Amino acid sequence: MSLETEITHAPEDNPFFRTSTLPYQLPPFELIRMEHYRPAFDKGMAEQLAEIAAITGNPAEPSFDNTLIAMERSGALLRRVTHVFFNQSSADTNEELEQIEAEISPLLAAHEDAIHLDHALYGRIKALYDARESLELPDGEALRLIEKYHEEFVRAGAELDAEQQDRLREYNAELASLTTTFQRNLLADTKARALVVDDAADLAGLSADSVSAAAENGRELGHDGKYVLSLKLFSNQSELASLDDRDVRRRLLEASVGRGFSVNGDVIRRIVMLRAERAALFGFPSHAAYTVSDQTARSVDAVEAMLGRIVPPAVANARKEAAALRAANGGAAIEAWDWQYYSEKVRKAEYDIDSAALRPYLELNAVLHDGVFFAANQVYGLTFTERPDLKAYHPDARVYEVFNADGSALGLFIADFYARQSKRGGAWMNELVDQSELAGTKPVVVNNLNIAKPPAGEPTLLTFDEVDTMFHEFGHALHGLFSNVRYPYFTGTTVPRDFVEYPSQVNEMWSVWPEVLSNYARHYQTGEPIPADLVAKMKEAKLFGEGFRTVEYLGATLLDWAWHSLAAGQDPGADLEAFEAAALERAGVAMAEIPPRYRTGYFSHIFSSGYSAGYYSYIWSEVLDADTVKWFEENGGMRRENGDRFRGELLSRGGSVDPLSAFTSFRGRAPEIDALLERRGLLVAQES
């Protein structure tokens, strides 16, 4: 039966057609089937357009209630299916989902354009905007809603002429299709390039549980008796630090950094050229200039000034580290696939630290319950109860009910930590239900990671990077859970892209906070706490490698910036790798031993995930993060009053206030960069 036939004859008991009756309106995943998605999208878009038509057809003069409140109430069905579908298409996709996504993405783009380019609707919004100072509004959040709607519609093309709007529709539809194609091609290429190893001896250096996980992965992928290292989204695969066989390291890294170019080259080239053309419609010289204009950075110059201050000391640090690695290798050259391996040797020699020795103390359930949840309890008073009676979208995903300190219900948290072939790479947070007083809804949020799943009955032992990632993504979850806004427009993490990483980066601080670390870092077999001297050495060793990590990150950031600084009509050429090499050289971060954290071919953040011209936001947000960590340290650290203030003034506000104004109110001053430079060892590099 064709997809079209299935859609036409879709059952009327589609679970998306009504509000879920489960706690917190958790989607009824046990009832949802593939054939439900397309009819729900179709009906959801039709319903919202009818709701918009009712707004524009209202003969009464525009008012806050009959225009903006009505818009905020519109699209409930479309919102339900969109949240569920795009979470599943990222976390547990299949060919049917991919086909639906390819069909629906351009239709959703056209739907958004139909709303944003509705002349009558924009006329009502503009009338409210022009009269905003004289309106009797309930509060400042309502005023901000008017201002943000006006800004959104202008940036979406409401003030373009008819010909320009037609071109904009074409650009948006094609871009929606291209970004979906990019992700589908990348997922397939990432699967195809997984490293298959015939002999366990070739994996010498990996821990026994890692070898077991590779064998289990091989079995699941149809390579019985062999070992498969599936690729994570970033360039430097975690196994590179341990694999003794240099050729295996080379093959693994080359598989990683070679992804995407052959399957996505034309797609990427077309994406960046279309984005530049679209920016030109709005009078901007590049997509980067257009994108940053409504972020907290506000201008290209501000971003480039910040990056320009960081690049020279970061590269200087990395070159010092490279010299230390060459010494550890007997003076021989260090290639990119050697860096992590010899970094580990230097850590052992200089700091007596073996990263593999940490892993038995970092068991997944202990990290989650006695680390992540414990920190949230100590700082914010939260408690968590697992709800096995509530089913998520995949058996590996676990559902927790979250409560405030006074016992009141806060929302649901879904933890989906294991990698699988149907899940895209990386780690991220999604919202399945948005918090809103207007809608009467509490948040349901999801954290997705990509941790290798061990064979049944064996423990899941983490690297410290994976622990940091777990705390980081839970910071995003807290941002969603703590949302306390009236209007859906401002819910949770709907803040500027260069601010959204700030709360998640702050939450990383608790992973090494003494009270938290001692609570979760216990040997999974003996229960013995992680040795204090090992913790001290780990902290001492942390600055070693900051040069690498900063240059790796800057390489990706400056690639993103180069691709999206192209002017309209400027063709980057068919040789993407040549463009990439020239961009890194021009930016001063070209080091053959340190590939960017994401190369162009697999940079899904910027070509399919909404971070285009925005990858700088991680380090921009880290300025705020480092300054906030300093505030916590200056004010007694892990104290409830500190957490309550951070929650009340920042985490709960969503997009309902200007984010930098909220930060300044919280911190008592504007953000300063010195705490970040000190954290990354860059102050020393600048002074030396």
What CATH architecture of the largest domain would you give? Orthogonal Bundle
**CATH H-level name of the largest domain... which superfamily?**
Neurolysin, domain 3
First-to-last CA distance: 70 Å
CATH fold title of the largest domain = Neurolysin, domain 3
Number of strands: 7
State the helicity in percent bands: 55-70%
Shape: globular
What's the number of structural domains? 4
Q: Strand order, biggest sheet?
A: 3-4-5-7-6
Average pLDDT, rounded to a whole number, is 94
Radius of gyration: 25 Å
CATH class of the largest domain: Mainly Alpha
Instruction: Please state the structural category.
Output: mainly alpha
* Parts with pLDDT < 50 across at least 5 consecutive residues: 1-10
Q: Could you tell me the strand content as a percent range?
A: 5-15%
Q: What is the number of helices? A: 28
Sheet with the most strands, sense and barrel status: 5 strands, mixed
Notes on the protein architecture:
- The protein has 688 residues and is mainly alpha-helical.
- The chain folds into 4 domains: 3-116 and 118-155, Neurolysin, domain 3 (Orthogonal Bundle); 193-259, no CATH class; 262-351 and 544-687, Neurolysin, domain 3; 359-485 and 505-531, Neurolysin, domain 3, CATH 1.10.1370.40.
- Helices cover 56% and strands 6% of the residues.
- The protein has 28 helices and 7 strands.
- It has helices at residues 3-8, 34-56, 64-73, 76-91, 95-116, 119-130, 140-155, 162-192, 208-220, 246-257, 261-281, 287-292, 300-328, 339-351, 355-358, 364-380, 464-481, 497-507, 514-520, 532-541, 546-563, 576-587, 604-607, 617-634, 640-651, 659-667, 674-679, 682-687, and strands at 195-197, 227-229, 383-386, 398-403, 409-418, 428-433, 444-451.
- The strands form 2 sheets. A 5-stranded mixed sheet has the order 3-4-5-7-6, with helices on both faces. The chain has a two-stranded antiparallel ribbon with strand order 1-2.
- Helix 8 (162-192) runs antiparallel to helix 11.
- The longest helix is centred in the first third of the chain and has 31 residues, at 162-192.
